[in-house]
């Protein structure tokens, strides 16, 4: 990047990254939201997404540890409180488990991440490593996919509720709660990036961080599509619906 972008142009560039690379374009997401997956395929998605959901507060704690300004830490800290809750049974993961419970998965096995695809683990672990080792700016910028998640989540929820008789509103409680605060979180992250990405080099880092996060999300859906849609080959050790029915 040869020139320094204005804050507005930087935001526009970040939005362009998402327009080209965000997971709303992935075939697996489109099938899921359109109601074209079967119960086993939806179950595989929910199981694998559990690992990502469980690591979100870990990721946020890592980001928090990188922020130098107490005001920034206070703002970011709310994410951890909202994800982990103030007590037992109040976390975002607890709300997510309503979905895996509703799909008939054994909760103890879900929480032990049994059957999660290796690629899911690799992608999520790479995300944790990224926010641990890169600059605070890059760590925050990697969360900017939140700018687009509200629309995608709303479309997914409406599509799933309309198409799958094994999905109920209460089992999608995680997304209801997430929609209530995602714009606030995204606004903070965007303001932080605009404030701290003020050179050509730092702006390039922020944009690259956004690309990386899109790749993390996309690669998880790649793995699901290969294992459970086409060619439908779950790797050894992964959850296999055919084995569940034997």
Automatic annotation (TrEMBL):
A GO biological process held by the record: pyrroloquinoline quinone biosynthetic process
Xref: InterPro entries: Haem_Oase-like_multi-hlx, PqqC, PqqC-like, Thiaminase-2/PQQC
Enzyme class: oxidoreductase
Source domain of life: Bacteria
Molecular function (Gene Ontology), one example: pyrroloquinoline-quinone synthase activity
Keyword Nucleotide-binding: no
This protein's UniProt keywords: Oxidoreductase, PQQ biosynthesis
Reactions that this protein is recorded to catalyse: 6-(2-amino-2-carboxyethyl)-7,8-dioxo-1,2,3,4,7,8-hexahydroquinoline-2,4-dicarboxylate + 3 O2 = pyrroloquinoline quinone + 2 H2O2 + 2 H2O + H(+)
EC identifiers of the protein: 1.3.3.11
Thiaminase-2/PQQC domain mapped to chain residues: 19-222
Involved pathway(s): Cofactor biosynthesis; pyrroloquinoline quinone biosynthesis
HAMAP family in UniProt: PQQ_syn_PqqC
Family listed: Belongs to the PqqC family.
Role summary: Ring cyclization and eight-electron oxidation of 3a-(2-amino-2-carboxyethyl)-4,5-dioxo-4,5,6,7,8,9-hexahydroquinoline-7,9-dicarboxylic-acid to PQQ.
Protein name per UniProt: Pyrroloquinoline-quinone synthase
Organismal lineage: Bacteria, Pseudomonadati, Pseudomonadota, Alphaproteobacteria, Hyphomicrobiales
Protein encoded by which gene: pqqC
């Amino acid at each position: 990047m040869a020139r320094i972008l204005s804050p507005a142009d930087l935001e526009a560039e970040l939005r362009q990254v998402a327009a080209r690379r965000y997971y709303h374009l992935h075939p697996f997401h489109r099938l899921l939201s359109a109601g074209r997956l079967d119960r086993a395929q939806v179950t595989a998605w929910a199981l694998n997404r559990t690992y990502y959901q469980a690591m979100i507060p870990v990721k946020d704690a890592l980001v928090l540890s990188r922020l130098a300004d107490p005001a920034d830490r206070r703002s970011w800290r709310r994410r951890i409180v909202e994800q982990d809750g103030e007590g037992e049974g109040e976390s975002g993961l607890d709300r997510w488990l309503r979905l895996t419970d509703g799909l008939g998965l054994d909760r103890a096995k879900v929480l032990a991440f049994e059957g999660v695809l290796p690629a899911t683990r690799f992608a999520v672990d790479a995300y944790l490593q990224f926010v641990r080792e890169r600059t605070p700016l890059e760590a925050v910028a990697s969360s900017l996919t939140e700018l687009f998640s509200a629309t995608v989540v709303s479309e997914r929820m409406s599509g799933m509720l309309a198409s799958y008789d094994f999905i109920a509103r209460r089992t999608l409680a995680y997304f209801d709660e997430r929609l209530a605060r995602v714009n606030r979180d995204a606004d903070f992250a965007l303001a932080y990036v605009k404030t701290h990405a003020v050179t050509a080099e730092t702006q390039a880092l922020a944009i690259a961080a956004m690309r990386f996060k899109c790749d993390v999300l996309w690669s998880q859906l790649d793995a699901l599509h290969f294992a459970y849609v086409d060619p439908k080959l779950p790797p050894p050790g992964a959850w296999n619906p055919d084995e569940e029915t034997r």
